[in-house]
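Escalated from tier 1: iron/sulfur cluster holo job.
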Amino acid sequence: MNITVRVWRQKNAESKGKMVTYGVENVSEDMSFLEMLDVLNEQLTLTDDDPIAFDHDCREGICGACGVVINGQAHGPQVTTTCQLHMRSFEDGAVIDIEPWRAGAFPVIKDLVVDRGAFDRIIQAGGFISAPTGSAVEANNIPVPKDNADHAFESAACIGCGACVAACPNGSGMLFTAAKITHLGLLPQGQPERDSRVVGMVEQHDHEGFGGCTNIGECTAACPKGIPLDTISRLNRDLLGALAKGKA
Amino acid sequence: MAVSGLIMLGYLLVHMYGNLKFFQGREKFDHYLHETLPHILYPYLPEGGFLWILRVVLTVAVVVHAYAAITLWRRNKAAAGYVGGSRYQTKQNKTGYQRSYSSFTMRWGGIILALFIIGHVAQMMPNWLSPGGASDSKYDRVVNGFEIWWVVLLYTIGLVAVGLHLAHGFWSALTTLGQNHSSTRRGSRWTAISIGLATVITVGFISVPIAVFFFGAGS
Ligand code: SF4
Ligand code: FES
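Tier 2 regenerated the structure:
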């Protein structure tokens, strides 16, 4: 298939960017979206153009490195990561717009690459447990109700890609933050630091310049890992509880 | 945002109860307004005292709500990372995946509501702004006003704005307070309840002007 892409090109963090149009020929529909960009980059290299910078690592949907906005949708038309999106999701002759995540807290570094360091700092503000765990114990030593285990696992699936922020009209990082709160808050090991965790992480989230959640729900629809929306209500419950205990 | 909104919603329900007394006729309606309301908790509170407490609480709620809205609006605009006038340059999927029209109109709808409320309060001052003619009977003023087409039109616009605002607002308030247990917005029972509540309120309020304008109630 032959397609046309319009890509956001931006030299560096300071420069102003713009959309640039390229034709890509002989694209196989079995290619992943990133492979299509690889082909385009080979083409650009041959003509001594600067290849398009984009983030990627595992290319199997588990690391969270990749992610661009495709035709206005974070990770494109399928509920999956950009690396797991295939060209068969597009028509022959399609014009595809490719842009970086847009958020005040995710400044563009170059082309489609944004700085997601803000997410790491949110995790550093409480997204962990500090109990010395030693070597792995026998799994059934600490019983966890099945329901809690399932929900914790579901939330632990967040790969920190940032699609939720890119899709949220408010540029809020609540779904990401709430996934971690839910994951640790549902397990026994997460209890001692439960209050300080939620207060610290939400504070850092706001400090990084992410927006406030207005419960639109675009984040869940965009999330490649299907992090559910009720995690945000769980975060709010934990936060209200912590504030009521004067843990601010 | 959530708490001040819920206070106003609570008031709206009681307000609607009062409005629907219109259908009991002139005497009952005027009695409710001129006698019942000023004597709530009387003699523990002076005559009209409860209404003044209510006015203060509501004014505070409106101010808090507006202040929170403006702060949030500005913060979220900065957080969305606009380049030039728009966030994403593409013309496709401008309305996102699944966001509702009502969530989309919270801000401008809120401004329409603010204007509506200012007009509405001005009109409630004793015989100050009285389209259709002043009277000491509130019932007569309602009828006089709603016999004019543009009053009905403005009122309808205001009430549709209320309905849209509530359809997202009630759900959003409860979610902020930690009450959503559904994995999607659409799937939540609170979404359904919000839409139901918004419809009941809009229809409840609009029934009075419809009855006056189209069916000649009260004349
Ligand atoms: S919540 Fe979903 S969209 Fe957001 S960072 Fe995690 S995996 Fe990505
Ligand atoms: S490259 Fe690892 S998730 Fe896409």
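The pocket of iron/sulfur cluster (ligand 1) is lined by residues A 158-164, 175-176, 179, 222-225, 227 (CB under 6 Å).
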